[in-house]
Amino acid sequence: MARSDGKEIKATRTSFAVLEAVAELDGAGISELARHLDRSKGGIYKHVHTLADLGYLVERDGAYRLSLGLWSLGATVPKRAVPDRVESIVDNLAASVGHVATLVLYESGRTIATYIRRPTSTASQPFREGESLPLHATASGKAVLAFLPDEERNAVFEGELDTYTDATLTDPETVKSTLETIRQQRLARDDGEYRTDIECLAAPILDDSGYPRGAVGVSRSREESGDDELDTDASLLVSASKSIENALTE
Amino acid sequence: MARSDGKEIKATRTSFAVLEAVAELDGAGISELARHLDRSKGGIYKHVHTLADLGYLVERDGAYRLSLGLWSLGATVPKRAVPDRVESIVDNLAASVGHVATLVLYESGRTIATYIRRPTSTASQPFREGESLPLHATASGKAVLAFLPDEERNAVFEGELDTYTDATLTDPETVKSTLETIRQQRLARDDGEYRTDIECLAAPILDDSGYPRGAVGVSRSREESGDDELDTDASLLVSASKSIENALTE
DNA sequence: AAATATCGTTCGCTCTGTGTGAACAGATGT
DNA sequence: ACATCTGTTCACACAGAGCGAACGATATTT
User: Fold this and answer.
1) Where is the segment annotated Disordered (chains A, B) (predicted)?
2) Most exposed among A195, B84, B244, B249, judged by the fewest C-beta atoms under 10 Å?
């Protein structure tokens, strides 16, 4: 099925398709999974059973869910990707601007919110840690997009651009037209394009060769915003992004 | 190889063995993995390639590491397992006792540190979120162990009990002898048995049927400790564990 | 109550694709 | 220059992944 290079393990693809489906459906039974993946019930049964036996799926009330063990397997990754000194920079940024600060990392075609700092413990979060974010509909995503090599950037525009809110830009040309400005200013903006009423500013984090490793962003709800602060926030953001660049390249 | 029930996907077992080995070795190449898992290089090559193509392994400087994508896949799990109201209870506990408070959950034979709260942002952590902890060498682990059904508890003692510090109890009978007291007091203690110079107290979290879902714990370095606080901490801990029990059973 | 639908589980069967071991070129170190 | 790593590719053989049908057990419907 699909294209088989002969140097691929198809069963592994199937098992991860199961895990991804369980995540997407937020818990599911055998039949539901088989239907969703368009596979035989018997076959999916074996995968689910194996994954459960390995401790990566747990059954409760007849539905299988992702286990804490799966999370635990990957839990060291963000700690290693974001050293303490980088966390501190984000912490300080959140404190200075008084809004939520987020560190987003780019990896194989997507950005992932890796570290989030709220200025107070009561502040609400725009997204969860570990959440995968669209490149075209967030400030951080666009900051990364603007600095990607042509080939990699174009790959993003080949698929459909998902809609998240009324303000989401779904036309490739519209998005592309904003990228030149972002490159010049090292600053991207998002006005409720991913979550309604949440405004973001973000600056890219580039490595030595100019390749975008991610972005730092500041988010606030529209009500909180005074346009007067905007310039201050922007300059704090850009300097934070440069500090992170230095911290990451040692 | 191994025992095959016929209703198991062996390729999936192999792929996860690869992921676990990568985690354990903290980055590895094909040959090293093949050697470590005692498998053919050609076969491991296919698994690694598939996992990398799926975006769950990333290559850097010739070594494969777990990706942010793998973490992202499981990142929703702890949020779902620990509702906000439970987080608050742990937050308050940390604030009242002035030490690090930890929520540990039990799942398929192991405990996992799911939520950690430091009283101040400078306090050092005894372990990382997502870390899998031994049942016999931590206060939280012993709190769980004491309330496990006989069969499940005995399974723990069948394997070797790993040593972590000079103080780790590795004799099954010694550990077992402490469990009765823990059951009576609803309180377990660990004195540098997992990390040197770190002292912990923990109370179990039980569901309606008395089955241990996890434990709450308080950790402090030995220097910080005054024995006078101990009784106060213990009672705060026990009442926190009861609040969490209520919060989890709705 | 009877009938229907849907669940998880099991069983053969067929052919695919997993796993092995050997051979390859390219680095790296001696 | 040699020896020893590495990742990659190949052909082969047997295991086992995936399918579809049938099972009893629960729910849901009539």
Assistant:
1) 212-234
2) B84
